[in-house]
Amino acid sequence: MKLTAIGTSGSFPGPNSAASCYLIETDEESPTRIVLDLGSGALSPLQAVIDTDALDAVVLSHLHPDHCMDMTGLYVKRCFDPRFFNGDITDTGTIRTRTPVYAPAGAQERLTRAYYTDPGKSPVANGGDDSDLSHAFEFFDIDHGDSHQIGSLRVESFLVDHPVEAYALRITDAQGHVITYSGDSDECENLVEAARGADLFLCEAAFQEDRDTARGIHLTGRRAGRVAQTAEAAALVLTHIPSWTDCSIVRGEAAGEYRGPIELAKPGASWTL
Length: 273
Description:
Blueprint: E1 2-7, E2 21-25, E3 33-38, H1 43-49, E4 57-59, H2 65-68, H3 71-80, E5 99-104, H4 107-115, E6 137-142, E7 147-150, E8 153-159, E9 167-172, E10 178-181, H5 189-195, E11 200-204, H6 221-231, E12 236-239, H7 247-255, E13 262-264, E14 270-272
Parallel strand pairs: 3-4, 4-5, 5-6, 10-11, 11-12, 12-13
Antiparallel strand pairs: 1-2, 1-14, 2-3, 7-8, 8-9, 9-10
C-alpha cells in the first residue's frame, strides 16, 4: 500500500501546496486506488500523478471546502470530457461508470450547491446542465463505526472532534497494513482508536501551542504527538499545516510527546508499507 501526498496545506491552498488530498494505491495485478479528500486546488496536482478515471473511490473526511471543494472540478472532468459528452448531460448513457464517493451525510446536496450557479439573465439558460452530480458520482454515507470495502482496501470511519461532522479514516490493506488519516480533529478518544497500532499515522497539526488556544477544532503538534504515542502508531507524518505556521515548531512540539519517527508531509512525497 502506497500513500502519496497531493495537497498538504492547512485550511486553504498555500503558496507551495494545494489543500488536503492524499492518494492511496495498492501494488496488485488489479490495484485499488482511492483518494482521501479533494480540497481546494488539489485536482490539478492529482492529475499529474494519476488518471482520475482510474480512481476506485473518493473518501471525504468532512465537508469543509479545503477537504472537498475540488469535487466540483472532478464532476466537470467526469461529465464533459469530449470522449463521452454528446451535448446532453441528462443522457446518462454517455457517462462512464459513476465514481463512488464515501462522505458524511449531506455531501451530495452540499457539493451540488457549491457547483450550481443560477443562470440569472443568461439568454441561453435552457441550454445549461441540471447540476445533478449523480451523473458522475454515486454517494454513500459514512458514519462512526462504519466499515466499507473498496477493492482490496477496508476503510473504517471514526467520528472526531471538529466543529462539523468529521471523521478520521483507518485504511487497512489485504496484508493487514494500516494507514490512519486524522482528517481535521482535536485530541479525542476516537482519534486514538482510529490510529491504534497504525503503521503510518497521517495527522493534522494546524495549531501551535500557546498561540492557538481554541479547542475542538485542530491539533497542535504536541497534541498530535500525544495521540500518536498513546495509540502506539509506528510512524507519524504531520500535515494540514497552514502557511502562517512554522513547520519546524510544530514538528518539535510533536517530538516532545512522540518517541517514534516523525516526518512533515510535502506535496509529492510518498510512503510505501
